[in-house]
Amino acid sequence: MDVSIIIVTYNTCQMTGECIDSIIEHTRDVEYEIILVDNASHDASKQTFSHDSRLTYIYNEENIGFGRANNIGAQAAKGDYLFLLNSDTLLTNNAVKHFLDYMVTAPATTGCCGCLLTNRAGEPIHSFGKRHTYTNSMDEWILFPWMKKLHLRQTLKKYDEARPQTNGIEVSEQIDYITGADLFIRRSVYETCGLFDPDFFMYYEDAHLCRKYQKAGYQCAVITTPGIIHLVGASNREIAPQKKLMILQSMLLYHQKDHSALSFALFKWLFKLTYLTLYAISALFKPKKTEAETEYIKNVAKL
């Protein structure tokens, strides 16, 4: 078996079906399997996919999160490579073959690779980034939002400046991390280093995984030839407070695992102090906060 394609779904029945259809439509000259892990969906997913002969269906009795569900899928995988693919993606060409061909010829130190994701309009969207640091996390969560509101800056450096010039099929083998929406992993690396840290429910687990691989001596690569549309990645809507809190919690967890206890404690104290102070200042200009926003900031203060 060449490739095990692992998809995690949670109440995304229609999108998941379209994703699977796109895999089957475009994938050629590759021996592959599709493993679908359902995180206790309560839509039509179980009824739709449990008897689908095109895939191996695994149903979890509860939503255990993105990383842990992928870990379960990996345990059932038979392929020489694991291809973690979001349920809200669409393949537009023989992307699996492109990944496979690249990794077969790449040095053994190339542990994983991804591609340049696009939205439906073909515009590039978040596909990889620089390593999360204390400095760029403060920028992302505190400085950049204010500068964007004041129309002083429209780009976030740790994502936009991570994009090197394309050069043939390979962009770079010095990418710090690849988004988990399309992560193609060498089995030997998975067997040596494992997959996602189960402490992450969702968000930042992909960056933590790539960081773990790099600490073990492996590199992350990005290639340009696979065509993959990321549907949710095209959205520019405001992040709901509940989701924003989950992302923030994952960011703090990432830094807690990547730094010493003392330095993390100092960072967390400084981050919360600055974040909550600026939030209080913003409340002077928008005194009427929604109930969800008020609950969000209370939860941030408790972190």
Features:
44% helix; 11 helices; alpha/beta; 303 residues; Spore Coat Polysaccharide Biosynthesis Protein SpsA, Chain A; globular
CATH class of the largest domain: Alpha Beta
Mean pLDDT: 91
Low-confidence stretches: 233-237
Shape: globular
- Calculate Rg over CA atoms: 20 Å
CATH fold category name of the largest domain = Spore Coat Polysaccharide Biosynthesis Protein SpsA, Chain A
CATH homologous superfamily of the largest domain?
Answer: Spore Coat Polysaccharide Biosynthesis Protein SpsA, Chain A
Number of helices: 11
Number of strands: 12
Residue share in helices? Answer: 40-55%
Label the CATH architecture of the largest domain.
Alpha-Beta Complex
Could you please describe the fold and organization of this structure?
By secondary structure, this protein is of the alpha/beta class. The chain is 44% helix and 18% strand. It contains eleven helices and twelve strands. The chain has an eight-stranded mixed sheet with strand order 3-2-1-4-10-6-11-8, sandwiched between helices. Helix 2 (45-49) links the parallel strand 2 (32-38) and strand 3. Helix 5 (134-149) packs parallel to helix 10 and helix 9 (241-258) packs parallel to helix 11. The radius of gyration is 20 Å and the shape is globular. It starts with a strand and ends with a helix.
